[in-house]
Amino acid sequence: MVDVIIIIIVIILLGFALKGSIKHFKGEGACCGGSHENLNAEEKVLSSPIIGKMTLKIQGMHCDNCVKHVMNAINTIDGASAKVDLQSETAVVSYDRPLHESDLYRVVEEAGYQIVSIVNE
């Protein structure tokens, strides 16, 4: 009787795993939530001339959805525009007014990622 219960539990768990795998391969369950539809984040155009750039090394990005989340998070900062690259795990942030690094750390961490380093250019 115990063997039958264990087999039933294993079958149920395999069913959930299979269901999740099918959703993932259909693109309905990306690693970071959401689908893979319309992952093109709009590039933010700054209203004033660019006065500087920073390159951020970011941990935790795994897919294009992560890139979109990071880009959108940084672009919420007034005067900042980001271009994020998944392969190099970096974001190049252009800015048209003084920009505090603490703001960058805050928005990126709120989005669920971590800045490892910031290099001013």
Key features of this structure:
alpha+beta; 3 helices; 2 domains; 121 residues; four-stranded antiparallel beta sheet
Your description of this structure?
With 121 residues, the chain is of the alpha+beta class. The chain folds into two domains: 1-30; 52-120, 2-Layer Sandwich (Alpha-Beta Plaits), CATH 3.30.70. The protein has helices spanning 2-26, 64-75, 101-110, and strands at residues 52-59, 80-85, 90-95, 114-120. Strands 2-3-1-4 form a four-stranded antiparallel sheet. The chain is elongated, with a radius of gyration of 20 Å. The mean pLDDT is 86.
Quick gist of this model?
This protein has helices spanning 2-26, 64-75, 101-110; strands spanning 52-59, 80-85, 90-95, 114-120.
Map the helices and strands.
Blueprint lengths: L1 H25 L25 E8 L4 H12 L4 E6 L4 E6 L5 H10 L3 E7 L1
Spatial strand arrangement across the major sheet: 2-3-1-4
Determine Rg (CA atoms, Å): 20 Å
Distance between the termini: 69 Å
Structural class, by secondary structure, is alpha+beta
Global shape: elongated
Low-confidence stretches: none
Average pLDDT across residues?
86
- Count of helical segments? 3
Number of strand elements: 4
Order of helices and strands: HEHEEHE
Tell me the domain tally.
Answer: 2
The CATH architecture category of the largest domain equals: 2-Layer Sandwich
In terms of DSSP E residues, the strand content is 15-25%
According to CATH, the fold-level topology of the largest domain is Alpha-Beta Plaits
Helix content: 25-40%
CATH class of the largest domain: Alpha Beta
